[in-house]
Write a structure and sequence with these properties.
It is built from twelve helices and 21 strands. The chain has an eight-stranded mixed sheet with strand order 7-6-15-16-17-14-18-21, sandwiched between helices. The chain has a six-stranded mixed sheet with strand order 9-3-2-13-20-19. Strands 1-12-11-10 form a four-stranded mixed sheet, with no helix packed on it. The longest helix has 28 residues. The protein is α/β, with parallel strands linked by helices. The chain binds 3,4-dihydroxybenzoic acid. 3,4-dihydroxybenzoic acid binds next to strand 16.
């Protein structure tokens, strides 16, 4: 086969067309900076992939305030608090009262949809369904990406900076030599079994519930579609679980003296979500910058993933704009350290809530009792509850 490639040029090449890559492309586009976004999947596949649904106020502001779309405000639901439940005892954390902020429930795949549509509306260049993606010349001032487009045509995209926004299996990250990066990671001995069901909401706010049988999360998508999760084995096979078995498991994980019962209905989506905490240090290598899951992954408890990706973009976008405006590269030089500040705070929160609310397989009963003490200490104290509320809604310096 001939090595003939069509050469393209842009200022910032973005590998990955998920929310992080598209948000960056959107903000750079508004500042007049050229981008090309390369994405391995097609638009409809990403839209149909269900992820978390909680947006911090700063994430909402980035979407609604930068002209992406107001759907997050009209179709998303404000949550002014959340419920932590332990062995059937519920405690509400009132975000508004404790820290004066709230979050919004608006699914990540809709965030993606709004961003992809905004980019197309604004004439942004996105190449869907690309294959054979390969990054090169990362330590020069002319890095490049080679790829084959959906029609089978081969390209080389030359740019001034490359951004790896290509998720937890990032090819950009793997192109950084081993000796130039530190991989910090831990795994967990459990996963989440996520479902979507046709049913009315079971509660007005989310319920994070620990029980002796393990964790469950009661979330929602609309008046007619509910999202729920329960702790499971990482190797669980979704085909071993029919609707009856899933509902029985969810019901026993929220059971308590208050008689809480979940509203049941037909389940139309089942997935197992793996748990991992990971941070790549640094988040820069030469002309390559990593954003979002490409640079760090959090376990889903607390829904920090997308919010953290947008925090990266809030640091990187103005640094790139400043560089192209004045040649000042101090923002770019500080990107990794500044983004990692927030990343490690969120890593700590996600790890902490995960361990507070989950039961380790085969653990010493001491631990469950200790966690009950921790639950009471957090929820029965205004300061403890405010710590949770501030971490969940987003830290002040990051708004
Ligand atoms: C959802 C997912 C989360 O991980 C979480 O902490 C809260 C909500 C969700 O999918 O709705």
């Amino acid at each position: 086969m001939s090595a003939q490639r069509t050469v393209l040029a842009t200022q910032v090449g973005i590998v990955g067309g998920g929310p992080a890559g598209l948000m960056l492309a959107h903000l750079l586009g508004r500042a007049g900076i050229g981008t090309v976004v390369l994405e391995a999947r097609d638009k409809d596949t990403i839209h149909a992939t269900h992820r978390a649904g909680i947006l911090e106020a700063a994430t909402v502001e980035m979407l609604a305030g930068s002209g992406v779309d107001g759907r997050v405000l009209t179709e998303g639901h404000e949550h002014r608090g959340t419920v932590l439940r332990f062995e059937g005892e519920s405690r509400r954390i009132d975000f508004q009262e404790l820290v004066g902020h709230s979050v919004r429930l608006y699914p990540q795949n809709e965030v993606f949809w709004d961003l992809a549509n905004a980019r197309e509306r604004d004439g942004g260049d996105i190449r869907w369904s690309v294959t054979d993606t390969e990054v090169l010349d990362l330590t020069t001032d002319r890095p490049a990406v080679r790829f084959t487009d959906a029609a089978g045509e081969r390209f080389e995209l030359r740019c001034e900076f490359l951004v790896g926004a290509d998720g937890s299996q990032s090819i950009c990250r793997r192109a950084i030599p081993d000796e130039e990066r530190t991989d910090n990671f831990i795994e967990y001995p459990f996963a989440w079994f996520g479902i979507l069901a046709e049913a009315p909401p079971s509660a007005p706010e989310l319920i994070y519930s620990n029980s002796e049988h393990g964790f469950a999360l009661v979330s929602s998508r609309s008046e007619t579609v509910q999202r729920m999760y329960f702790q499971c084995d990482p190797d669980e096979d979704v085909d071993d679980w029919d609707d009856e078995r899933i509902w029985a498991e969810l019901q026993r994980r929220v059971r308590g003296p208050d008689g809480l019962r979940l509203q049941e209905g037909p389940i139309f989506d089942k997935t197992v979500l793996k748990f991992r905490s990971y941070v790549c240090e640094p988040l820069r290598h030469g002309s390559l910058f990593l954003v979002g899951d490409a640079g760090h992954t959090v376990p889903p408890t607390g829904a920090k993933g997308l919010n953290l990706a947008f925090c990266d973009v809030r640091v990187l976008a103005p640094a790139l704009v400043e560089f192209f405006r004045s040649g000042d590269d101090s923002g770019l030089a500080g990107y990794s350290a500044q983004a990692l500040e927030r990343v490690w705070k969120a890593q700590n929160f996600s790890y902490w809530v995960t361990n507070l609310m989950h039961t380790q397989p085969g653990e010493n009963p001491f631990n469950q009792k200790r966690r009950r003490g921790e639950f009471r200490a957090v929820t029965a104290s205004e300061h403890g509850a405010a710590y949770f509320a501030e971490s969940y809604t987003g830290w002040p310096g990051d708004r």
